[in-house]
Amino acid sequence: MLPTTDRLSIIVPFYNEEENVAELLREIRQACPAAEIIAVDDGSTDGTLAKLRTEPGIEVVALAYNCGQSAALYAGLHHSTGELCVMLDGDGQNDPADIPALVAALAGADVACGYRLHRQDTWNRRIASRFANKIRRAFLHDGIRDTGCSLKAMRREHVRFLVPFNGMHRFLPALLKNAGLTIVEVPVNHRPRLRGVSKYTIGGRALRGLRDLTGVSWLLTRQLRLPPGVLPVRKA
Ligand code: UDP
Ligand code: MG
Fold first, then answer.
1. Which of 15, 66, 121, 185 is most buried as measured by Cβ atoms within 10 A of its Cβ?
2. By the 8 A CB rule, do 149 and 188 touch?
3. CA-to-CA separations, 172 to 73, 158, 162, in angstroms, rounded
4. How far is CA 127 from the centre of its chain?
5. d(CA 150, ligand 1 centre) in Å
6. Strand-pair category, 183-188 with 84-87
7. For residues 153 and 185, what is the distance between their CA atoms, to the nearest angstrom?
8. What is the pLDDT confidence band of residue 32, given thresholds at 50, 70 and 90?
9. If you count DSSP H runs as helices and E runs as strands, how many of each does the chain have, helices first?
10. In ligand 1, which atom is closest to the CA atom of 197?
């Protein structure tokens, strides 16, 4: 583990993002110089892992094969040592300059979820996302306006409330809220993807999202809800 002087861990999943690594890590360091940075290489087949290995002062978690965004985040969360964890995408669409506001919001809630004020995606992606958010809210009543925004902050001790499955990252707020945690939403910047390509198609995401929605609807009715203080807090 890296020695860290800060209580903040920043977790970033990278899958074939070789052109985005250097600039994004520079921005993260600039925004949060003392934070622990956990870069998860999700089985990339390009030069992402090699690039990550040349970056000083970060911890690299290398998954042996492509496990998916949820798995990469879950692995990163479990490798983190800070008291607070922030997650953001590795393609540069989330702005690291928003991290301090997200962390500040944790003073008033257990979880802080970014929502993208001005989406910088194609019109068909924006419509699909709006539709998906509406359906999810109607089914799960999680009250979250933009679960597709990857910029999120939470306390590391609450990682235990996550139920790992492929697609979990889209339901983080629902799972955490259902476990009894409080959530605040924070408006964040969103930027166009300048380099590399999206790892998802609209159709693929819609199909998987619908299937996951039925599973999560069930799970939320059966998720363990223990009174506070019952589970021991995991120390760094
Ligand atoms: N990602 C990952 N594993 C995957 C797919 C994606 O780690 O199997 C990462 C990807 O590198 C990026 C983030 O998840 O950092 C979001 O992916 P992407 O930008 O393609 O999603 P979109 O913005 O199109 O929703
Ligand atoms: Mg993206």
1. 15
2. yes
3. 11, 11, 7
4. 22
5. 9
6. unpaired
7. 10
8. very high
9. 7, 7
10. 20
Residue owning the nearest CA to atom 21 of ligand 1 = 198
- Sorted by where each begins, the domain ranges of the chain are 8-222
Token pair, residue 89, equals 């995408």
Report d(CA 127, CA 133) in Å as an integer.
Answer: 10
The answer to which of 64-73, 78-87, 152-161, 225-234 has the lowest mean pLDDT is 225-234
pTM attached to this predicted model: 0.93
Domain formed by 8-222, architecture: Alpha-Beta Complex (3.90)
d(CA 194, CA 200): 16
Q: Residue 95, class by beta-carbon neighbours within 10 Å (0-12 exposed, 13-18 middle, 19+ buried)?
A: middle
Q: What pLDDT, in 10s, does the model give residues 107-137? A: 999 999 999 998 888 888 888 888 888 888 8
